Amino acid sequence: MSFFDNPEFRRNCWLKLSPIRLALMPVVILLVIMAIKAGDGGGQTIRMLACLGFLAMTALGGAKEASGALREEFSCGTWDSQRMSSLTPWQMVWGKLFGSTLYVWYGGVILLGVAAFAAHGEGARIENIALTGVIFVEVALFLQCSAMLSTLCAWRMNRQTKQTMIGILVVFLFVFLMWGMICGIVVYDSDKFETIAWRHQVWDLQDLRDLFALFLFLLIAWVFIALWQVMRAEFLLRNHLGWWLAFYTFWLLWGAGFVEKNWFVFFLSAVLVVWVSIYLFLFSGRKDQMAWLRLLTAFRRRDIRLLQHLAPGWLISFAVLVVLCVCALFAAGKQEGALFVFFASGLSFVVRDIVFILWINLVAARRPDVTAVLYLLVAYCVLPSFFGNLFLPPFLSRDYMKLLFSTDFSFTMPTFSISPLFAALLQAGLAGYLLHRRLSLNPPR
Q1: Residue 417 domain-assigned?
Q2: What CA–CA distance (Å, rounded) separates 277 from 411?
Q3: Do 329 and 343 form a contact (C-beta atoms < 8 A)?
Q4: How far is CA 435 from CA 311, 381, 432, 439, 440, in A?
Q5: Using CA atoms, how far apart are residues 28 and 34, in angstroms rounded to an integer?
Q6: Confidence of residue 184 (pLDDT cuts 50, 70, 90)
């Protein structure tokens, strides 16, 4: 099926485009330009207003249209009939994404052309104009994909769409965590912090547009794949864990391209980001008892093929976290005993949180996620103030921050002690006991 033969795309074209709307957009833009000219506005004013108009129309308005394309189906009760149609999840994704935003892209292209023409009149180089335009388009497309993805995830969680903006903020948080990790690695490996080298390509810090454009392009590809995977799950099709492993592999290879010598700091930064992603997956994925029973049944039967489809995102992230902790342990090259206790207790605290949050979702009748957030606040803010490191995850401790920001690589671990590890294992065991008792009421067969 070609691009224009997609029934969903053609339906959105009929809804969004009409001769009057197509003629109205350039007329309005032309009138605004004439008003600016009449008010003694120069080419710079036109260029700035055209850029702002493009972002407002395609980024903000496009995100609203992309999210509204799904919200309209949910509110009107037509989503189930669309899921039972002959369209595949891939066709549904790009049909709704590009069809619902077609009109805003029509106006955005006109505004982008006006901005490019004004910039060229001011003497800007053509390659700089083209690169800036590519970045603007990528930012708009990223916001549109993120809005549709967060709306679909919110609908899958509780059949509501009130968490759209929260989902967008979560996506931004994860993006900036990844980018912050990369910038932190550059600080450790650069003496004067004047240039950035990635895969033997050097960029001046004054002009990172090439690197940023590449990063946005790859990020959009992964957000689009994530949207396709969630749509497959909504169509009751099974996904493969290979996509999650491919994403983590890409992310680590991307970050490793900036590293020249300090691999220990790289793995520490990666541990922190994956640790945060585990909790994002915990609060955004399904945690009902039936999903658990299917997973446990496949595990007891050693059905590897079924496990590859049923494994949740937080479980895959935890496996990646374990591998990263082992890599950091080997990359340190010294004080292996203290580092082993450090990472082992950190993993035990993560197991405690995962198991306890799952237990809360199985026993709480209403608002289990709110209860889980209150538990995390008590576990991370209240208990450490009374019991110290026995209730403080190492990934949030002062020692971890010292390791992360030790630019001279002359870190010193605290005195070797296994008491934090025993405390973490005891808490994880208690949470596991509670979850086991709850699951034993309906054991898998």
Answers
A1: yes
A2: 27
A3: yes
A4: 18, 24, 5, 6, 8
A5: 10
A6: low
